[in-house]
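Write out a record, fold above all:
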Amino acid sequence: MAQDASNETARAPSVDELTPPDRTLMGPGPSDVNPRVLRAMSTPLVGHLDPSFIEIMDEVQELLRYTFRTDNRWTIPVSGTGSAAMEAAIGNVVEPGDTMLVPTNGYFGGRMASMARRAGGEVVEVDAPWGEPLEPAAVSDALAEHDPDVFGFVHAETSTGVLQPDVSELTAAAHDHDALVIADTVTSLGGVELRVDEWDIDVAYSGPQKCLSCPPGASPLTLSDEAMDKVLSREEDPRSWYLDLSLLEGYWGDERSYHHTAPITNVYAIREALRLVAEEGIEQRWDRHERMAGALKAGVEAMGLEMNAPDEYWLPSLNAVRVPDGVDDGAVCDRLIEEYDLEIASGLGDLEGEIFRIGCMGHSARPANVIYVVTALGDVLESMGADVDPGAGVTATRRALGE
């Protein structure tokens, strides 16, 4: 019996060749990846200190500066997902005993708060309901009341489909109180207008898998000189060695000294994704996202559905659509996967069960995809008894696209 068990343990598992389904990705991320990016990932590896890779690192940093609209020297792709860039930003800038002001108007403001507490900071809040942006007056009042060291806000809230307007007003108010500003740009970088330097943002982090249409693994982060000065003058080391920017600057800065083995294939990928941004032109890319998402919005509204966010702070890259009465949002998402190989998502947090989250990001923001998602969503909703007019939705979408 013991011999049989040993033989069973020693037997190699039989696993078939990898054949994932070919989905159309129109959820909150990841988005469809351009074939050029996939080809870049299949090119030969080199060492993470190879002279050719050092040149690639320089190119990635320059392309990131262009995309962030910044001249910040400290602009790098963090090895990890967007949450790693988020933790690098907050975990380095927030020191034990610091106060960080965070918003309450979405899921990712809550994640900011959690990371700040883990960094040893005291968290205070500026209140705004889920699905609404921060009001500059409320931010000013909270700054005056709490006098924080750091103010964080979410530029594009993935959980609610809300784009934060008045960014320059928020940053000016924060700087009047000598607070550094950290912006979550995970769902805005490369998809909607973002101007780090002009808007006076001290730290911005993002993820590659949304509007950049790049597989996760190397995530954009940029810091102003003022923010990096605070990082380099800390009295106590950050709690994460891996994400310690004072160490990472030795690898991504002038020295190019060993810190960790970079995810080389992911750096290839983000380089090619950023080349695509530069070739298209960042402002033209912003315009394309607005046009494609506008056609999507026209279609779902003509069908009889409602957007969660009013027009004045609608987020083109992430469209939050109200779930119609009597419909199970999870069942709709399941049907779209099963019948159409199409991914959209349900709501998070306070909006769980109340909205669909439909991305229109990067390589996914194309006419064929927009028509497809409106057609498929209308078909599934009608079959489930929802009060919708799929034909009107498709017609409105095509008209908005000029077809």
